[in-house]
């Protein structure tokens, strides 16, 4: 059977093994060169169907046995991604808007670890509550919601300009027992385009590696500014990930 994830050797074993566990650790219903569907009894309710398209164009889907039965999936039936999505749609199952998944390649990780980041930036702690509060009060509610940066996250880094906190990146372990740390980043509007976001993202990513974690950068497909930042910070696109919408009634 072709393994879509392992076709991307530029990424670390931690990343490829994580996604293999998510999508291929179960009963394989169908697999060909471009599309694989598996059933997994252990999926959580909020991830009872997921789809991953890796950057080489291959697609994997995984779902619970109950959902497979509901949409009419059977062992060894001929399947395509289009047919699979049609079955979901006909059963009233909707997927949340896809996220891009970015990680450092092995080569770019080595570059990052040797990088000496310059500028007024540092790790933030609970002692920075006042400056962090001033920072968040200067940002829009929409930006705060989209970025999801919090001072009590596992790691928080900030970039300053004239003693003012103007850009923040924060991280938290993404899944239990997975050495992957998901990050968010926010720069105040009037300070964008100056390299602050790139520096805090690279700084917090370097810290994650020092703690044994792979940094993960996610953003919606239509967030072109965030996509550009991911690339500028040295990340490489791994794939597009979809999960069942929280608004789905099924």
UniProtKB/TrEMBL annotation:
Domain N-acetyltransferase: 119-250
CDD domains assigned: NAT_SF
InterPro entries linked to this entry: Acyl_CoA_acyltransferase (IPR016181), GNAT_dom (IPR000182)
Xref: Pfam families: Acetyltransf_1
Gene Ontology molecular function: acyltransferase activity, transferring groups other than amino-acyl groups
PROSITE patterns for this protein: GNAT
Gene3D superfamilies: 3.40.630.30
Protein name: N-acetyltransferase domain-containing protein
Organism: Brevibacillus brevis (strain 47 / JCM 6285 / NBRC 100599)
């Amino acid at each position: 059977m072709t393994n879509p994830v392992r076709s991307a050797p530029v990424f670390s074993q931690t990343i490829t093994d994580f996604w293999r566990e998510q999508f291929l650790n179960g009963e394989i219903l169908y697999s060909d060169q471009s599309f694989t569907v598996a059933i997994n009894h252990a999926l959580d309710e909020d991830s009872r169907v997921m789809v991953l398209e890796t950057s080489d164009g291959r697609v994997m889907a995984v779902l619970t046995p109950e959902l497979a039965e509901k949409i009419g999936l059977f062992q060894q039936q001929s399947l395509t991604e289009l047919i699979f999505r049609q079955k979901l749609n006909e059963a009233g199952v909707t997927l949340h808007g896809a996220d891009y998944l970015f990680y450092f390649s092995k080569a770019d990780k080595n570059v990052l670890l040797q990088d000496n980041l310059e500028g007024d930036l540092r790790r933030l702690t609970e002692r920075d509550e006042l400056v962090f509060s001033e920072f968040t009060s200067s940002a829009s509610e929409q930006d705060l919601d989209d970025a999801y940066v919090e001072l009590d996250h596992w790691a928080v880094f900030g970039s300053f300009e004239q003693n003012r906190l103007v850009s923040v990146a924060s991280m938290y372990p993404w899944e239990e027992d997975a050495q992957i740390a998901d990050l968010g980043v926010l720069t105040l509007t009037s300070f964008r385009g100056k390299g602050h976001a790139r520096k805090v993202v690279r700084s917090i990513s370097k810290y994650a590696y020092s703690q044994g974690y792979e940094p993960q950068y996610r953003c919606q497909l239509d967030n072109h500014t965030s996509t550009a930042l991911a690339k500028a910070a040295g990340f490489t696109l791994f794939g597009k990930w979809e999960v069942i919408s929280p608004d789905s009634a099924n």
